[in-house]
Every structure is written in C-alpha cells, then in structure tokens.
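Budget justification note: compute hours in this period were largely spent on complex prediction jobs such as the one shown. Inputs:
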Amino acid sequence: SQQGEEDPQALSIQEGENATMNCSYKTSINNLQWYRQNSGRGLVHLILIRSNEREKHSGRLRVTLDTSKKSSSLLITASRAADTASYFCAQSNSNSGYALNFGKGTSLLVTP
Amino acid sequence: NAGVTQTPKFRVLKTGQSMTLLCAQDMNHEYMYWYRQDPGMGLRLIHYSVGEGTTAKGEVPDGYNVSRLKKQNFLLGLESAAPSQTSVYFCASSIAPGNIQYFGAGTRLSVL
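Corresponding output:
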C-alpha cells in the first residue's frame, strides 16, 4: 500500500528558484527517505532523516520532518535544469522486510 | 563498483510466454527487493528477501515467483506473462532493515 503522498504532483520553476515538495505519511516511522528518479532511470537516494531529527541538509537539499503532523518537506535551493526529475518520499515498512512505501512522487521541471 | 545490475534492460513478450529477470548486487547486502512501477505511480513491492534462501510476498505478488539461491542474486520469474504485467521492474538492495536502498537501472517489459 502507498503510505506516503507527495504534493504537489507537478511543479514547474525557472533556474535559480527554490523548489519545495511536501510528503505526508500515515503511520509511525523510524526514518523517512527521499529519492530522485530521472526519466527512464532507476531511483537514486538523496537523503535519510531519522524520526528524532527535525532537519537535515545535504548540499542544496534541505529536508524537514514533523512527526507530530506526519509530514516532511524537501527544499532544493537555486534549482538547475539538471534537477529536472521526479522526487519520491518513502518510509520503511517493517511488515515487509523494511521495503519502502512510495507515493506517486512530485514531477519537477526546471526550465533555463 | 557495479552496485545493482539488472538484466535484461528491455524485453517484449507475447501473452503466455515466460521469462526470468536477474538482479545481481556486489555490495554483500542481505536485503533485496523487486518493485514494479506503472505510469504516474510510485513503486509497488512484488517480492522481497531478507537473506539467502528466503523470500516473501509483497503488495502485488500474483503472477510472479522469486528465488534467492545466492546472496548476491535475486531472480524474478513470470511463468505465464499477461498484458497487465507490462511495467518497469526495479530491483533494490539494502545492507540492513530501514537503511538506504540501492536501485538497479530497471527492466522495461512489454507483454503483447
């Protein structure tokens, strides 16, 4: 079952702008992960935030986690055309070998 | 360092034909997963394995079988392909439960 849900489904911005994507989930988590998928490619891990963390940074990426609201956000600062991709949040499901539950993702288009 | 390798990359089958998708990882990971991704959707778990010789069903297991005879390989079989199995299949592996998953590049399968 898809536990997470990203919002918006699609986002179009210009280079240099910031992009914010949100994720909501349903049950308690140990950690939440964000992945990126370029068109026709496999998923690449971006960042993992643990349930006892509120914010994490990696380069131009900033992830926040609010466990009381069961939500997370991914901020990409100073976007580049190369950031064009789909972005997924995922949570581990302990009932299925800690497989990841994915939402439908946010499709980000960054235009020059 | 190859990571996770999936073969083949593309395949076209006729309804009723069988095939095996191979996933190989060189990271000595215990956990391996097969997902499928349909247009506009996130990934859904087909089967998973928490170690050599073990397999279990995921969210959408019908029509698929798996085997994990060697730690580094996880095979996904379609005994009698159906058009509903047209999809992109991704394999992933993880060193420990809830950790980062590493994905292969995917196998694009069309069943006519």
